[in-house]
Amino acid sequence: SIQSWYLRRAASKRNSLTNKSHSFIHRLVFHSEVSKIILFWSVISFLLNYLETYDDLMFIAKRLGRVSCACLPSLLFLTLRPSPLPKTLYLSLLPIHKWLSRIVVLEGAIHTILYLIYFVRENTMFKTKKATNIWGIVAMIAFTLIAITSLPQVRRISFNTFYITHYIMTWVSVIAVHFHAKPGIGLYTILNISILIAQIGYRFYYSKKTKISVIPISPTLSLVEFPLSSIPKQSNLPGSHVRINNKNGMLKDIYYKLIPLAHPYTVASLPNDPTVKLIIRRGNFPLRSNQDYYITGAFEPKLDFIREQSLFHKLFEPRRLLLTTSPLKYSIDAHRVMIVVGGSGISFGIPLLRILNYNGISARLMWVCKDIKDLNLLNHFRGVQGIECYITGDVDENDIVIDYYEDDKDHRNKVLPVQPPDYGSTIEEEDEIDFTTLGRSYKEAHRKGSSSGSTSSDSFKDHENVNIDISNTCGYNVNNPLSSTSVETNSSSQLHQLPHELISPDAFKNIKISKNVKIFYGRPNLGADHYDWCLQSQCVGPTMRQGHSVCCRDLGEHDVDKSKIWVVAAGPTGLVDHAKQWAIDGGLRYHIESFS
């Protein structure tokens, strides 16, 4: 009957909601990193603040203030950049820093509120005018300003406001807490001041003044270069980054040394290239050729699958090949690597791809960019094999001329120092592009017939929603590359000499790239074909087995160690998140570009 059908449907909905809520709670409790951090610090905070307080409210109020003071050295230590802890990135410590700082602010606020209530009840509000208590109020105001400006909304609106307030109020709180605390906290203050001064000293010691060269690549992208000798602390791994600041007057230079507002850029050249190259998306930071800038760094990257060769290998490996003594020879824990980058994230992908090619690792680089004129960049990195470019913006083929050239044979097998100038890598979310993933399991994608197109998320709303279709048959569909004309012309040296601001948009119409680079329209959709490439199981056609034609996908003869297959992502947050999820769903390992 209708009534029984309705009851069954209602019960089904209730069960569905119950299962979803249980699933959400399970994820929140057992799989959420944030929940684990909150739980850990809540337990530590409770133990430190409540034990041996004898249920005395004023004892608890004093303990809250004392614990927040005691946490300051640890809080500041977590902000050291680069982190002094071995093989630990500054960014990996930020979640701990955030939650510890929230606990410090919360405990300080409760400490203040309890004392104000006590003063009101005892009719002793005049005590708030004592010098020690005024310093406590100043510290609480500093903590409050730090908390307010740390909100994501404030950081997005004005990062400079967040950072400058954060930094200045840190100094204010350290000094104010020192004069407020009773009994004194001299040891904590020494530790706090030492950490803050050490940061300033590091910036002074590892900063160097140099002139840069700026090469316009497209209306929105530029290439910056400067000599390798300009980097005070050179890195031995690909994908390191440097921080750049303007050379100003003496007072401004001191100001920027004290308050470390600098722009981080990924180094797109190799560690042994004589010229450092940075790929930079145009923004508010002015970059002009032949101007003086301060370079700080380089800061080592965290690469989960690449490390320098050990001293044992360098000393005792057979010297039969020149490769064993090359500075580009690394210990690489990977068999195959798929690199997915968006926009200026290519600055991380190119040196990584070059190193992998040199060390004989199968690698593939997918570069998603909005403007086809950005492809001019590849003319400055000749000889790099395995690049696929996906153009997501509107392209009028009448407004561009693509000249394809043949790479020299020498380029195909050697990693040469790449020609000069480049920009670092700032990620502008609104200028760059993401891609979507296939919303079903890989086995299902191999077996079933129709591949479902993905819907575009909020981060894609300003871009085309173009996917790569996945075919289930033996053999697979491929996007057709842009039609090419193989007319080789010399790159315009005049373009490199003109100031960035004076370049006409028409100057970027001629795009010169290698024939080895594949160009596609639209956003890539990671799916079964990419997964087959990772597992070295691309379909080559039907095979006869026991008198029957069997699809190559169903043979099941590929015994692949997935722990040696990596998906590497760099660029906008949406792109990185999708690449990470795709790798996790496929049982592959993943790595995301991180700054130290």
UniProtKB/TrEMBL annotation:
Localization in the cell: Membrane
UniProt domain Ferric reductase NAD binding: residue ranges: 336-581
Pfam families in the cross-refs: Ferric_reduct, NAD_binding_6
Protein name: Ferric oxidoreductase domain-containing protein
Keyword Magnesium: no
GO biological process, one term: reductive iron assimilation
Residues of the Ferric oxidoreductase domain: 64-177
Keywords of the record: Electron transport, FAD, Flavoprotein, Ion transport, Membrane, Oxidoreductase, Transmembrane, Transmembrane helix, Transport
Keyword check for Disulfide bond: no
Protein topology in the membrane: Multi-pass membrane protein
Positions of transmembrane segments: 34-51, 63-80, 100-120, 132-151, 157-178, 185-205
